[in-house]
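Progress against Task 2.4 (sequence-to-structure conversion) is shown through the following example record, which the project officer requested during the mid-term review.
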Amino acid sequence: MLSNDASGWSHNVYTLTPGVPGDSGSGFLNGSGQAFGTLSTLQLLPTVGANGVGDLAKELAYMTTNEPALADTRLVNGTEAFKPNLVGAILGG
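Structure tokens generated for the chain above:
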């Protein structure tokens, strides 16, 4: 993680490949496979190629507090084991 902005609502990160238009809303995982954010921007300044990632915990808290119909929304564990090795994950190893 490069930095935090907007009182912790956004994180600037570098990834192997930057997000591209159409990827907005994609989930971001930490090194342990835990969801921490959603892709929102591809930055040009001041850090070219960095991604702006919304803070998932803050977004979920805001949503469940301000939208009564979604108040019971919860983040749940995935059904597949996390594979932190990108090449291994792609090749199924």
